[in-house]
């Protein structure tokens, strides 16, 4: 069953992610979809959950006030509708463009260096990947951290991990760009991305309709196999480079 509730106090994407995350943690909640413009939360439940319990989930954040709507009607889930009306290309256009830019620029760098060298290209690609992705996370660091805590296994237990993670990506981008200690840089990449992919795999396997935080809170991208491919690609590249170096 799905019920829609009014939630006041939400003013930005960070608020949206926070309310969605808090309500999603309640036992019996299958999915939470927030319409920021309308100030509404559509909650898909395994069984009826008392409004008092929903309000209690937000008690630590008094500015978010949840109330019942006059009439409970089957809710329209924005993420699901968005996927039905948009093509795959339209949905993932931001990520496709970013990957296209990074691939194009790094291939051009190889051409300007007189020939294509796989190891050098992978180093430049990973530098571009981490620098660009950390940039979007840092545009709204709080929004990213709150979105990330909804599915990452570390961020769920330690909310500050999302803030730290964005700067780790920035540091890795700079390290790959400058060639700093390749063994250490690739080792950290392999470990961090391996941990990150666990939460992504769990969310996709459970078919949770949540927002992917890979590009921070800037784009409304759904969690999907695309997110798995991103993390898996970084794991594979860092692992390959470690094997080559060692």
Task: Report helical residue fraction.
Answer: 55-70%
What order do the SSEs take from the amino end to the carboxyl end, as H and E?
EHEEHEHHHHHHHH
Task: Report how far the terminal alpha carbons are from each other.
Answer: 55 Å
Strand order of the largest sheet: 2-3-1-4
Task: Quote the beta fraction.
Answer: 5-15%
Structural class: alpha+beta
> How big is the Rg?
20 Å
Tally of discrete structural domains = 2
- Average pLDDT, to the nearest integer? 85
Number-wise, the strands total 4
Total number of helices: 10
What is the molecular shape? elongated
**What are the segments in which pLDDT stays under 50 over at least 5 consecutive residues?**
71-83
Please specify the SSE layout and strand pairing.
Layout: E1 2-8, H1 13-24, E2 29-35, E3 40-45, H2 51-57, E4 65-68, H3 78-85, H4 88-91, H5 93-112, H6 118-139, H7 141-148, H8 161-178, H9 182-205, H10 225-245
Antiparallel strand pairs: 1-3, 1-4, 2-3
Highlighted features:
10 helices; alpha+beta; Alpha-Beta Plaits; 4 strands; 246 residues; single chain; 4-stranded antiparallel beta sheet
Describe this structure in words.
- A hairpin with a 4-residue loop joins strand 2 and strand 3.
- This protein folds into two domains: 2-81, Alpha-Beta Plaits; 86-245, no CATH class.
- It is of the alpha+beta class and 246 residues long.
- It is 59% helix and 10% strand.
- The protein has a four-stranded antiparallel beta sheet, covered by helices on one side.
- It is elongated, with a radius of gyration of 20 Å.
Summarize the structure.
The chain is α+β, with helices and mostly antiparallel strands and 246 residues long. It folds into 2 domains: 2-81, Alpha-Beta Plaits, CATH 3.30.70.100; 86-245, no CATH class. It is 59% helix and 10% strand.
């Amino acid at each position: 069953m799905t019920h829609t509730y009014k939630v006041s106090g939400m003013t930005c994407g960070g608020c949206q992610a926070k309310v969605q995350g808090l309500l999603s943690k309640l036992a019996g909640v299958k999915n939470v979809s927030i319409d920021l413009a309308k100030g509404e939360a559509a909650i898909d439940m395994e069984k009826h959950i008392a409004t008092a319990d929903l309000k209690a989930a937000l008690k630590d954040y008094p500015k978010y006030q949840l109330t019942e709507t006059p009439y409970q009607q089957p809710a329209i889930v924005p993420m699901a509708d968005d996927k039905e009306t948009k093509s795959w290309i339209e949905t993932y256009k931001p990520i496709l463009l970013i990957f296209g830019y990074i691939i194009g620029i790094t291939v051009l760098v190889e051409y300007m260096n007189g020939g294509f060298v796989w190891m050098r290209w992978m180093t430049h690609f990973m530098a571009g990947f981490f620098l660009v992705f950390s940039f979007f996370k840092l545009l709204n660091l709080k929004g990213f951290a709150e979105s990330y805590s909804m599915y990452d296994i570390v961020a769920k237990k330690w909310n500050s991990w999302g803030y730290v993670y964005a700067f780790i990506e920035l540091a890795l981008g700079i390290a790959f760009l400058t060639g700093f200690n390749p063994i250490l840089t690739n080792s950290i990449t392999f470990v961090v991305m391996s941990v990150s992919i666990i939460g992504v795999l769990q969310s996709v396997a459970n078919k949770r309709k949540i927002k992917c935080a890979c590009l921070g809170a800037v784009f409304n991208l759904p969690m999907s196999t695309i997110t798995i491919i991103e993390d898996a690609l970084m794991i594979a590249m860092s692992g390959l480079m470690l094997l080559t170096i060692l």
